[in-house]
Amino acid sequence: AAYFEIVAEGTGTHDILYEMNQVILGNPLIFVGGLIGAALVFFFASLAIRAVGSAAGEMVQEVRNQFADGKIMAGEKEPDYASCVTIATQSALKQMVLPALLPILTPIVFGLIYRYALPDAFQGIAPYAVGGLIMVATIVGILMANFLNNGGGAWDNAKKYIEEGHHGGKKSPAHAAAVVGDTVGDPFKDTAGPSIHVLVKLLSTICLVTAVLYL
Hints:
By secondary structure, the protein is mainly α. The protein has helices spanning 2-11, 16-21, 28-67, 70-73, 81-95, 97-116, 126-163, 173-209. The chain contains 8 helices and no strands. The radius of gyration is 23 Å and the shape is elongated. The two termini are 16 Å apart.
């Protein structure tokens, strides 16, 4: 509503409901905005999940290298804990650069393309296309975050449930399958799911601040 209030003031209508009603997804140009908003959520989630796998791979390699040191395994030498902490922090910062830029650059680039690249006959549609992007991204983001949080939690707790002795307990085929599910569930519920909430809020804030660029 705050975004469309700015649009209403910029277009001179001062009618927020009127402006919101102009976001008609049946219009192909506005539908493209909604499509980009939905795709943005899935792309963001995939980057977050991939970042966890990449950082974990680097950590595992470092641990293996230290395990190869006979003195560490014999207890004659202290492990290098600092290197593992460094890998975790550096990977977290490096891997989240692109996901952090997505909600900032996507609405700005999309809105400016619609504002200046479309023919004169379509001038004025840019703020509504960006509004469609916000609306669909918010809807898809809520559903996606709910799926990731609950699905990831189910996979994680399935392993714990089996380890309590159900379905054969530890070292059973069910436990082996649950361990694989847990490796997917953890980044779902701990990384991608919670971060989508940040994506939705940041996307709305960026569109609100830059709304005047699309008028």
